[in-house]
Amino acid sequence: MTMGAQTVRMASGAPVSESNYYDSFAAELTRERSFAGDEADGDDQSVGSQESQADDDREPDGLSTDESMINNGTKKIRSHVAPMLVMFIFLFAQTFISATNVDVVLELVCRDSLLSTKHSGGISGIEKGDPRCRQGPIASKVADFMSYVTIIPPIMGVLIVPKIVALSDRVGRKPVLIWGGMMAAINDVIRLLCVLFPDTFNYRLILVATIIQSAGGSLPAVHAMNAIYVSDISYQESRGSRLALLDACLFGSFAVGPFAGSLLYSITNSRGAVYLATITLELLFVMLVMTVLWESVTPKARRSSIAAHERRYSMHIGEPELGSKARIRRWLKMMNLFAPLTELKFSHLPKKSLRHNARLLVGIGSCMGDIAVALGTIIVLSLEFRFNWTSVETGYALSVMGVIRALTLGVLYPMMTRKLHSLFPVSHDTVDKSDLVLIRFGVTIMAAGVVCFPYAPTGVICGAVLAFDSIGAVCIPTIKNAVVKHCKPDSLGQAMGAMSLLSSLAMIIFTKGFFKIFSLTISFHPQMAFEVAGGLLMLLVFLTFFFHTSIDDYEEVHGVDPATQYFDEV
Questions:
Q1: Where do the TM regions start and end (predicted)?
Q2: pLDDT of residue 205
């Protein structure tokens, strides 16, 4: 129950270097801005047209003319296989170390408390499963420290991550991906030092390491950037299936990563070896991003985003109070942590119904994923309390969930998408019936699994319920793809950053709420937290019936019936 965030064929697809690309990009950008009635954008577009000749002579980073040629109006783009493999390396590295991170925190905190175990040779002096680490004040100390480690990422997600993701519109995707990989590597270097030299490097430095990683290198942040990159290099028609494949990589890494990390530890009996392997994978990811991936944001798109950013934080030079007041006002505007949320107003969309659909999609997507993630730890605790499971049995269950999710997104999702597209008209601009079917199906499966899980009488049946619940993952790439349909081509990173901010806020609320319910009702009705979560998920299913039909919106905007257009294309 975990969740793994996202320019058009011209503006959200693969960038190309021919002059046709820039002409089409400019035309599409003009259309988007005319919908919003932004006169300043129109002026910048005129300026951009004066630079078109220079742009025609300059190719986007990393693309050759042969690789970006246009044949019969259809762009030829590079394969997405190499980017997927590069991104899988980072996902694998993060899940590879996940189980070790928990054990290291437990053992370091316990070692610091049990003075008799202190020595200079690392943390191996504490026996695995030492009962002293789970008794009295030490157990309380471990729980308190883990609560800080757990709450830092969503807080940093509110403070920093949205701005970093939005920055990728102006500087490109590759620099932000490299930044994320480096932050993750630095985090693991600090943890490695704490493991090897616990007398010199206090375990509290893990909090510093967590803050560093959360500043762009956390798994959710980098996975969100991966999704944006995949959206950039994909046609509208193939974007949904490629996002599904990316999520399959995520859940596939959850299936094999912890197992591989545990296997390495069992062979070497060294947590340092596990951290060294993880750091090596993270640095390999950085090197491959620098050398293998090509920049997916064109120079023209970056200049357009920079111009939009400057307008957004301009000092209003024509105002009479220009001076210290204007500078203070500008500073306050730039420091507003919740300013990215204004991107989710979708004011550039031409119809109120389209804006309604986009906002509803963002709300459903954020709440659905965060409910699932917030329940993750409670599921593990419930399995251990009810069936006396250890991390071994729990690991097996989580691996099964990862495998089912990977198969669902890699096999079932494309099959369902192809079938639904043959039955219903397809819209590349707003929610269509295929999207609604997949969203309702996925969230309903998740709700059923959440409600049934606490009532399963045996551990085997609980595992089967979790496997069934994993099929609900089909709604994850569907919602991402539907949200991307509504985003402005030149501010996709800003929109995804705003969604990350909203998701982080929701994560704090749901995590605290479910844990509070679980702790208050565990003695007399431990199913309460799961019942509340299931009820919230069914509420999200109910909200999907308030989407406006895509056919009316699409026909009014484009002057064509999407059904006719689809079958003409076929």
A1: 81-99, 145-165, 177-198, 204-222, 243-267, 273-294, 360-383, 395-416, 437-456, 495-515, 527-547
A2: 92
Domain assignment present for 549:
yes
Could you give the CA distance from residue 295 to residue 175 in angstroms, rounded to a whole number?
Answer: 9
Query: Is residue 373 domain-shared with residue 467, that is, in the same domain?
Result: yes
- In a domain, residue 3? The reply is no
Domain assignment present for residue 27? The answer is yes
User: Where do we find the tokens 């319910």?
Assistant: 517
Residue 445 tokens, joined: 């499966």
Q: Is 529 exposed, middle or buried (0-12, 13-18, 19+ CB in 10 A)?
A: buried
pLDDT band at 182 (very low <50, low <70, confident <90, very high): very high
The domain tally of the chain equals 3
Range with the largest mean pLDDT of 39-43, 177-181, 283-287, 329-333: 283-287
Please state, as a whole number, how many other Cβ atoms lie within 10 Å of the Cβ of residue 552.
Answer: 12
Which of the two residues, 7 and 124, has the higher pLDDT score? 124
d(CA 546, CA 352): 13
Indicate the SS3 state at residue 10. Answer: coil
d(CA 322, CA 315): 8
389: tokens are 């499971």
What pLDDT band is residue 333 in, cutting at 50, 70 and 90? low
Distance CA 435, CA 426 (A): 9
